[in-house]
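Work Package 3 (structural annotation) set out to generate three-dimensional models for the target panel prioritized at the project kickoff. During this period the team completed the workflow that converts sequence records into discrete structure tokens, so that structures can be stored uniformly alongside our sequence database. As a representative example, we reproduce one entry of 240 residues exactly as it appears in the project archive.
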Amino acid sequence: MPKLSVNINKIATLRNSRGGNNPDVLQVAIDCQKFGADGITVHPRPDERHIRYSDVREISKIITTEFNIEGNPKEDKFVDLVLEVKPHQVTLVPDDPGQLTSNHGWDTVKEKEYLRNIIGVFQRAGIRVSIFVDPLAHMVAGAAATGTNRIELYTEDYAKQYHYNREGAIEAYITAADIATQHHNLGINAGHDLDRHNLRFFHQSIPALLEVSIGHALIADALYYGLENTIQLYKRELKG
């Protein structure tokens, strides 16, 4: 069964909108863990508009489940943070500084040498590395050449097409996952716009899937169903 890592960025966005400490991001991290999440994901950005670097440091001290930090390693501050905190996994994402949300994977062919070098930095510190990639055969093959432990398949295109043509939507992801696992022995993660409606079909179609990272949809559902119940609803989809 794939692991569910809950991205708590949106909790920090809500907190930051009013100042103070309500909701308490650290308490939410503890509660997600208590409610059954297999991991906690955060994505600190340079402007700290949601998760702050100080949050990352504090969360790392209080959770016992898997900790996944996402971000762009071309920001020296991000690299320093990850090496300081030493999470279980770092997910490298090619975000621009002011980008609203992640919207593309790495060009693993063009950026091969850069990725190889920075991945080595994290791996030598004992941190598992995943890199964000589009579901394209040559990008998956390129990812393997960087020495990464895993790839995270960027699933926005799948989510957009799912309700219209789910068989067509999943096709590229099946191919990408097969290339990753059968030809290159890469672990498979996935994330971006996965929700409780499209999650089950995705994981059933990708048997090698190890982990999904979900934030926006899960937190939105929690407004209606409560955080504990919502985490269990998502885990139920991963069991189906």
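The first helix runs from residue 9 to 18.
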